[in-house]
């Protein structure tokens, strides 16, 4: 007796596909069979020959529930992920109060996020310039032993609870992380250059949207990547360039790989599809991110990088902000609006439509960059990112022929999207996590029926016992509230959050279904470059 049979699932076999029946027991893939006439199961779901990928992974999210719940909580963030075909997210350590830079802070974050989560999640570890200065570097090994997948450092400022690193501080971070065998991800922008030219453009009176991208120029990312590569070469650390925006960045990573240096990179859907002149002229601060959008040439060079191996996989840097207080508040301009956009809901559709369906990516490459490579890089494979017997029964089912248009009003809570108006062909229609349908296109789902009391308990209050368990943290960070949250619109109007959650359709499980996933092992992607 099996728990589930996915009937007529079209699964990848290299660049081809075969139609099979997938057997699921105890939330794991238990087998594949051509015939199910004699097979018993509690549930049979007919996939009807639609493309069924190993569950897709977004390895770079900022859901920001803890400290910044007006932006995106873990419930709305993981609902958007599931709607977009993502079965596992890996959340960043920086955008929370306090930031997650010790085992206790990690445990607190997990205890707060898990009751809201709808898909599985892993965690990045944190290390900053403050950790170097205060002699807190013992936290690196402790976080690694706990099960984080990698460590994040910022060369430019992020939030007050996550200080940036100076160059020598970053070198110290590289040395400490190298001892763990885990990747160290850097936000690769040269701080001095960005700071100087932003102030220069402000003094000159530039207030147009494209000014943001021109001030934080391509060269600022180029020299930052070169410095990171030099540090990786010196220390043996596994350098990872997060949200890489430039074609020259891909070339630098590719050349470093050919020299045998441990360096990998990711890019984001917006760097493949948008250019700063058009998007920032039309959307202004709603297309403001860091690193900024680049040029059409960068778009094409990053697609090329995905194909030749200099870009290893895709992620989103999903980091939406509140329109009323952080994007379009009265008196804000392109320099003072917060930099961040949504992405978790549209990553898979954009790569399917603009990559696979348009012939830019083969099927095997699509699977690698949406599922397998991130799972391996972050030590989650083959639990995640694989269609192997024994792997978690995570599947992303895609209607390759579905035509639709991205709008600003989607599951993510922010209400804006610079990809608005992009017409796509291909859409996730079922998202299955550990053998359970989490998202089903066209269904009402579980969220519209959540009661006021359930929403109060799940979204607006901390879980029972958390404040007592982490009393020391709450003493240092009262209520875990940020200054931005205190000034936010949604703090005074929590009913807006409830209304949004109740408007989300297609989520078939209750909040709390998603599980925290620790790193399984240390794995390294091959340094394969194909020109």
TrEMBL record:
Iron keyword on record: no
This protein's UniProt keywords: Hydrolase
Keyword Hydrolase: yes
One Gene Ontology MF term: allantoinase activity
SUPFAM superfamilies attached to this UniProt entry: Composite domain of metallo-dependent hydrolases, Metallo-dependent hydrolases
Pfam family, one: Amidohydro_1
Enzyme class: hydrolase
GO biological process: purine nucleobase catabolic process
Ranges where the Amidohydrolase-related domain occurs: 53-438
GO cellular component, one term: cytoplasm
Superkingdom in the source lineage: Bacteria
Family: Belongs to the metallo-dependent hydrolases superfamily. Hydantoinase/dihydropyrimidinase family.
Protein name in the entry: L-hydantoinase LhyD
Organism classification: Bacteria, Bacillati, Bacillota, Tissierellia, Tissierellales
Primary gene name: lhyD
């Amino acid at each position: 007796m099996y728990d589930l049979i996915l009937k007529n699932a079209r699964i990848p076999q290299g660049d081809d596909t075969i139609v099979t029946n997938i057997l699921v027991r105890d939330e794991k893939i238990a087998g594949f069979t051509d015939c199910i006439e004699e097979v018993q199961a509690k549930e049979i779901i007919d996939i009807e020959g639609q493309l069924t990928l190993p569950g897709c992974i977004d390895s770079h999210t900022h859901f920001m529930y803890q400290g910044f719940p007006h932006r995106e909580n873990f419930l709305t963030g993981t609902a958007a992920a599931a709607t977009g075909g993502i079965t596992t997210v890996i959340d960043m350590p920086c955008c929370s109060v306090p930031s997650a830079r010790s085992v206790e802070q990690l445990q607190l974050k997990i205890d707060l996020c898990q009751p809201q989560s709808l898909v599985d999640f892993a965690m990045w570890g944190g290390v900053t310039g403050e950790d170097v200065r205060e002699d807190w570097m013992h936290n690196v090994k402790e976080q690694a032993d706990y099960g984080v997948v990698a460590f994040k450092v910022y060369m430019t400022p992020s939030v007050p609870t996550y200080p940036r690193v100076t160059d020598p501080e970053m070198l110290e971070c590289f040395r400490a992380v190298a001892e763990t065998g885990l990747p160290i991800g850097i936000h690769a922008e040269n701080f001095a250059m960005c700071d100087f030219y932003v102030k220069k453009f402000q003094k000159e009176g530039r207030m147009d949207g494209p000014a943001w991208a021109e001030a934080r120029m391509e060269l600022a990312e180029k020299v930052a990547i070169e410095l990171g590569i030099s540090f990786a070469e010196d220390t043996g650390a596994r350098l990872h360039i997060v949200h890489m925006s430039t074609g020259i960045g891909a070339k630098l990573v590719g050349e470093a790989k050919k020299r045998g240096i441990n360096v990998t990179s990711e890019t984001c859907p917006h760097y493949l599809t948008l250019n700063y002149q058009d998007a920032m002229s039309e959307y202004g601060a709603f297309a403001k991110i860091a690193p900024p959008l680049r040029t059409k040439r960068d778009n094409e060079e990053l697609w090329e990088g995905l194909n030749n191996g200099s870009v290893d996989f895709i992620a989103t840097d999903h980091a939406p902000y509140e329109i009323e207080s952080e994007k379009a508040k009265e008196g804000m301009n392109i320099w003072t609006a917060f930099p961040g956009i949504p992405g978790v809901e549209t990553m898979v559709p954009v790569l399917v439509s603009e990559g696979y369906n348009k012939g830019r990516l083969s099927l095997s490459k699509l699977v690698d960059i949406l599922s397998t490579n991130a799972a391996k890089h972050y030590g989650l494979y083959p639990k995640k990112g694989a269609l192997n017997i024994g792997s978690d029964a995570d599947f992303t089912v895609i209607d390759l022929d579905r035509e639709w248009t991205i709008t600003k009003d989607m599951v993510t809570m922010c209400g804006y999207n610079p990809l608005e108006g992009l017409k796509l062909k291909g859409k996730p229609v079922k998202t299955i996590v550990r053998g359970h349908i989490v998202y089903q296109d066209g269904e009402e789902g579980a969220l519209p029926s959540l009661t006021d009391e359930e929403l109060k308990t799940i979204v607006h209050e901390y879980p029972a016992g958390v404040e007592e368990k982490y009393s020391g943290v709450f003493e240092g960070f009262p209520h875990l509230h940020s200054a931005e949250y205190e000034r936010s619109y949604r703090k005074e109007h929590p009913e807006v959050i409830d209304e949004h959650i109740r408007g989300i359709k297609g989520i078939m499980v209750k909040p709390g279904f998603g599980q925290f996933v620790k790193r399984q092992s240390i794995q390294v992607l091959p340094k394969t470059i194909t020109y």
